[in-house]
Amino acid sequence: MNLQASQDLSSNTLSILRDLVAFDSTSYRSNFDLIDYVRVYLEGFNIQSEVIFNEDQNKANLLAKIGSGFEPAIVLSGHTDVVPVGGQNWLSDPFSLTVREGRAYGRGTSDMKGFIASVLAAVPAMVKASLSRPVYIALSYDEEVGCAGVPSLIDFIAHQQIEIATCIIGEPSSLKPVTAHTGKHVYTCQFHGTPMHSSLAPEGVNAISYAGRVIAEIENLVQIAKTFAVKDTRFTHPYPTLNIGRISGGKAVNIVAEHCQFDVECRYPPGSSADFFTIGLQQIMQSVAHLPMQQKHPSACAICEETVSYPAFSSTDASPAAQLVRRLTGANESYAVNYGTEAGLFEKAGFSSVVCGPGDIAQAHQPNEFIALSQLTACDNMLNSLLTELSVKEAMS
Ligand SMILES: [Zn+2]
């Protein structure tokens, strides 16, 4: 593997990672400070950035082009947001990079500021080189809340008619090429009952019981899910999986519950479908609405709304993206993962994509998240190989 021919970890990569981690870019906060840091950094190399704001003007994507080659471009893509640290037991400040025993600790080190740091550290060399293809740095917001930010960035790329050869999505994959991942649908289901003294419970609709009936029916869908299995043995669970991950409701044991809500998700591998879930959920909702007590109290109602959805991702080993990453890392296999990324959206837009980034997904979202320094070095080397490949082509043309 040519990653073994490693250079030392660039002190630049580590110092940029330190800066990036210090921005608390948890998804519910603005990412402006981080985006502005990148914009100013790139401006230092005479690279202009397009900053694409969200509707509320409090978050932004960034797209920056390096080089002026005429061949279709390479996109290096990362998300700037991180998951919350609340309720987690951290041994050090999650927003202050701590290096010990060959690891750099901090929120987002693996997922996925390590990749962004490595990309930014490679910029001076990219600027100096004469690239046969432009390299775009594409940074998004709100990936962690369901890939909500990147669609406007992809639209922008499409609208500008930028020709793309390959997108590398640098999510933590231990720098293995990932060519398939699951898609996801998330629904939030809300139930309204009739609040009254619990001694009158038989006369009312209890929102928690109402939700409970729906949950029991969803559990039946879990069995149906297995009939939609695909043959891709790379997936740990090669069929759709369901999870009810959060529920809340009720005020006190002596009050008939007025409100209850839960979130339920369905993940599905490429080649399978979540229709049994999305359609099944609506059918379940209709059937419980016709129970006698609900009909007696028209104010008692329930609604399930889709809050997150992104497509499954599937590419082939022969795709330009997979081939490029294989050349750069020396990997000779490709992988499938059960987590989701923005790759499905890039691929769906017609851009050959692959997931390949430093760090282990097992570290993502965890307390004391870290990235091994050796992974950062390996990512620096991968980008160095990219630079060599793009420069060589220039010399040959
Ligand atoms: Zn991520």
Rg, Cα atoms, Å: 24 Å
Helix % is 25-40%
Average pLDDT rating: 93
Annotation, overall tally of beta strands: 16
Structural notes for this entry:
The relative contact order is 0.20. The protein has 397 residues and is of the alpha/beta class. The chain has helices at residues 11-22, 32-43, 109-128, 150-159, 207-225, 275-289, 292-296, 320-329, 343-348, 373-396, and strands spanning 49-53, 60-66, 73-79, 98-100, 103-105, 135-140, 164-169, 178-181, 183-192, 241-249, 259-268, 301-310, 313-314, 335-337, 353-355, 370-372. The strands form four sheets. Strands 1-2-6-3-7-15 form a six-stranded mixed beta sheet, sandwiched between helices. Strands 10-11-9-12 form a four-stranded antiparallel beta sheet, with helices on one face. A three-stranded antiparallel beta sheet has the order 4-5-16. It contains ten helices and 16 strands. It starts with 10 loop residues before the first helix and ends with a helix. It binds zinc ion (ZN). Zinc ion binds next to helix 3.
